[in-house]
Amino acid sequence: MSLLRLYASLVDTPQRCPWALTDIGAEPVTGEGRLAELPRRPERIQLLVPAAQVLITRARVPPEARRRGGAILAFAVEEQTAGDPEANHVTWLGAVGENDVLAVVDKAALRRWREALDAAGIHNYEVYCETFLLPWVTGQWSLAWNGRDGFVRTGEFEGTATDCGDRNMPPLSLKMMLEDVEAHGAGPSSIALYTTAPEAVPDVEAWTRELGIAVSHAGDWDWRTAKVNGASLAHERQGWRAFSGTLAKLRPAAWILAAALAIHAMALVIDWTSLAHEQRKLRQQMDIRFRAAFPDAVAVVDPPLQMRRKLAEARHAAGQPDSGDFLPMMQKVTAALKDLPAGALRIISYESGRMTLEVATKDAALIQRMATRLGQSGLSVDPTAAPVRAGGATVVFTVRSS
């Protein structure tokens, strides 16, 4: 698998950078140049941020913030950065004991690199801190040293840059870090020193005396060939750009789909227009039949409802009961409520063809069975939950003659 690694200093203008192209079974190819001239079509791309430009710190954040990140993590490190939280890009790296480890980089500088890479046609890449390319084993610190300064990896998720030193004197910041962790009983057993420049090997015996801990030269180290052994700071995905060529190929299919959707929409419009015309035609026929049966009617608003009312009036005038009268409705309601426990029917009221029943029950199956029976008997029913009373939950059935 080919891997293109870019060394991106956030303090420099994102126009050119050192790079390394590695592949399995082949010697790495290295160079430095403009972003537009970088090797094309590698299988993976890594953007490497120098260790000195990434602040790795501890904080306590809610579990939800670990997954979502964003402003919550930025505010979690506000005291350590002493700046505007919105100016920082913060990533959750992992947990050490009860503390969370966060990585902080300059958001504006990282955005400039993203925009420059996007303009150069590079869209899918991972962002790593240089610190996490150093080898690391439990109980030992790893130090990268160029003869003047460097950076140290102190844990799986932790590390920092050091200040200056020389051949005989280690960095003061490294000595202070050791004193701090040893005061808490968590110091390393030794320090593995990796050199990043020719003739950068210090006097390890002098360093051992000054630091009070064993220092050994572990060999040369180069970011161009080192393996990543830590969490990424961000992952820029190619997104829709990956499908730019595919979209061009699918353009004819898209036109066909658009035409099919347009035809379907026209068919729906025609269908709805036809149904609306039929509805108006049926309404006109009902109006005509109602006026023919009742020529004295002043206005026709709802022909079916008005026809039912006139029919009820005619039946009453002839001494016959109507289905909306109390007794016929009560017979149907009584048959539908035959499974109701004794005392469950609290209130029953009737007015103008509408009967209201208040039933005390929590049995959803019984409520559904009652509503079904009422509907099968020719009544329209609307069961609704009533306000909770002292006796428990109640349901109100509003029943009308169909």
List the helices and strands and how they pair.
Blueprint: E1 3-7, E2 16-23, E3 26-34, E4 44-49, E5 55-59, H1 63-68, H2 71-76, H3 78-81, E6 88-96, E7 99-106, H4 107-119, E8 125-129, E9 140-145, E10 150-153, E11 159-161, H5 172-183, E12 190-195, H6 204-211, E13 214-220, E14 234-236, H7 244-249, H8 251-293, H9 303-317, H10 326-336, E15 345-351, E16 354-360, H11 364-376, E17 379-385, E18 394-401
Parallel strand pairs: 1-4, 4-8, 9-12, 12-13
Antiparallel strand pairs: 1-2, 2-3, 5-7, 6-7, 8-14, 9-10, 10-11, 15-16, 16-18, 17-18
Helix pairs in contact: 8-9, 10-11
Describe the overall structure:
The protein has 402 residues and is of the alpha+beta class. It folds into four domains: 1-134 and 226-249, Nucleotidyltransferase, domain 5, CATH 3.30.420.380; 138-220, 2-Layer Sandwich (Nucleotidyltransferase, domain 5); 259-317; 326-401, General secretion pathway protein M, EpsM (Gyrase A, domain 2), CATH 3.30.1360. The chain contains eleven helices and 18 strands. Strands 3-2-1-4-8-14 form a six-stranded mixed sheet, with no helix packed on it. Strands 11-10-9-12-13 form a five-stranded mixed sheet, covered by helices on one side. A hairpin with a 2-residue loop joins strand 6 and strand 7 (99-106). The chain starts with a strand and ends with a strand. 22% of the residues are buried. The model is unreliable at 238-244 (pLDDT under 50).
In summary, what is this structure?
This protein has 402 residues and is α+β, with helices and mostly antiparallel strands.
